[in-house]
Amino acid sequence: MSLAFLIPAALAALAALLLPLLIHLARRSEQRPTEFAALRWLRQKPKPRHRIRFDEWPLLLVRLLLVALMAALLARPVLHGGESEAPYVAVVPGVDAAQVRASVPVAANARWHWLAPEFPQIDTQPAASNASISSLLRDLDAHLPPGVALTVIAPERLQGADAQRVVLSRRVDWRVAPGAMPAPAALPATRAPDLVVRHGVGAESALPYLRAAVAAWQPPGNVPVALDTAPVAQAWPGKTKHLVWLAPGTVPANVRDWTRAGGTLLLAANARLEDAPPMAALWRDEAGDALIEGAAYGHGRVLRFTRALVPQAMPALLDADFAQHLRRALEPAGPPPTRVLAKAHAPADGGAAFPIAPRDVQPWLALAIALLFLVERWLATGPRRAVAP
């Protein structure tokens, strides 16, 4: 374990140690000489040589130490080293901890922890969490010293895994035990979005294709998906989340403001949006040409058809999967599955090793300064002192 300073130039403040010394020398006595008339005619004798003498040694030492600690605080001291080199055993939730501790041979001084947020000790119950198992492994690998042996005991089925094996900076003793990680809470089935369409003159020909798509979204025996079509002059309901704007020319300001506030706007190919962001393709045809493109717009999203909604310009309108592509564009897909067999997800070694972050001792140093200041005040103002230097 070694002490280092992040701002060593701040140690120049140690020059302030001269202040308590000068104060004690200048005010070591408050006695003032008084002249007597009868003594004026006596022959003056040489004055004895005075030695430098400090009064109130305890108070002086406390003040010197207080100034030194304040200078060290400005230099931001940190401690390197001192981490435990004992083997580390991480147990993934879903494994019987008592059984694996009795059956898995590890060193007697091994540290047992759950592979869960904050890595609690094995004797405690980890809190339920949807944290990624891959992220927890990387975090643990980054916080352990390079020479520490790491053993991970995982259940047969893992949740929260990445699409590829984790690469760590050390070789991991990967052991698979009976059990399975708790499955995350199932996401509720998403309902197809209600659609509000506002169209201009001549755009009525696109409405049958949108009606067919909404009809394909209708769930059996559930609340039907609503489709509201009207000319552009008619206002849309206040709870609208998805608006299709089939009108040529510049998009009105109220439509832009509604989209920036969090709505999803789908524009016709001949609609023009001022300050439109660069868009990425969300749906391509068999030739690879974009049919719908989109991008974030404020707190909402803006989408755009790249062609007119007629079969001559967009033959995909007649395809059976048109409704599915339209729904995916309006509502992005959910997270991908993250369940995997543990035996096929053992971490690989050879990754980059990260230096262990030093421990900051400033909070402890600040506490010591506060306590030492109280001691200094007690010594300086105590009733036992006759004169305060």
Describe the model.
It is built from eight helices and 17 strands. The chain is an alpha/beta fold and 389 residues long. The chain has three domains: 1-29 and 54-81 and 358-389, no CATH class; 88-183; 195-330. Helix 2 (57-74) packs antiparallel against helix 8. The chain is elongated, with a radius of gyration of 38 Å. The mean pLDDT is 83.
Question: What letter string, H or E per element, gives the SSE order?
Answer: EHHEEHEHEEEHEEEHEEEEEHEEH
Per DSSP E runs of 2 or more residues, the count of β-strands stands at 17
Largest sheet: 7 strands, mixed
Q: Approximately how much beta-strand content do the residues carry?
A: 15-25%
Low-confidence stretches: none
By DSSP (H or I, 4+ residues per run), the number of helices equals: 8
Q: Helix/strand/pairing class, anyone?
A: alpha/beta
Strand arrangement across the biggest beta sheet: 8-7-9-11-15-14-13
Mean pLDDT: 83
N-end to C-end Cα span? 40 Å
Provide the helix percentage. 10-25%
Oligomer status: single chain
Radius of gyration: 38 Å
Indicate how many domains the architecture comprises.
3
Core attributes:
389 residues, 8 helices, 3 domains, seven-stranded mixed sheet, alpha/beta, single chain, five-stranded mixed sheet
Topology at a glance:
Layout: E1 2-5, H1 18-26, H2 57-74, E2 77-80, E3 88-91, H3 97-103, E4 111-114, H4 133-143, E5 150-158, E6 172-180, E7 195-199, H5 207-217, E8 227-231, E9 242-246, E10 249-250, H6 253-260, E11 264-267, E12 271-272, E13 280-284, E14 290-297, E15 300-305, H7 322-330, E16 340-341, E17 359-360, H8 362-381
Parallel strand pairs: 3-4, 3-5, 5-6, 7-8, 7-9, 9-11, 10-12, 11-15
Antiparallel strand pairs: 1-2, 2-17, 5-16, 13-14, 14-15
